[in-house]
Amino acid sequence: MGLNGLKVGGIEGRDDEGNLSGDLEADFSAILLNYSQHVTPNLGIGVNGKVITGDLGGEKENALSLDLGLLYLRGNWGKP
């Protein structure tokens, strides 16, 4: 489980013609849920799901993300 956040201010805003329109702020956050499992002594799998929210100058967006991963250990790596 996790929570990430990023907030940035002082971004130079511009209109459609390239004229300055004032400073903008950006605010992004993500809530993460992770799970991993050994399938064999040398092979592990994992999944990571995220709910991402963003706000750039008052324009708000939301997204879902899913990551899958495999880890294969060769030889004696990770073993005592």
Total helix count?
0
Choose one word for the global shape: elongated
The percent range for helix content is under 10%
Mean pLDDT: 90
Largest sheet, strands/sense/barrel: 4 strands, antiparallel
Specify the structural class. mainly beta
Record the strand order, biggest sheet. 1-2-3-4
Order of helices and strands: EEEE
* Contiguous runs where pLDDT drops below 50 for at least 5 residues: none
What does this molecule look like?
With 80 residues, this protein is mainly beta. It has one domain. It has no helices and 4 strands. The radius of gyration is 20 Å and the shape is elongated.
Chain-wise SSE layout:
Elements lengths: L1 E13 L5 E21 L2 E14 L2 E14 L8
Antiparallel strand pairs: 1-2, 2-3, 3-4
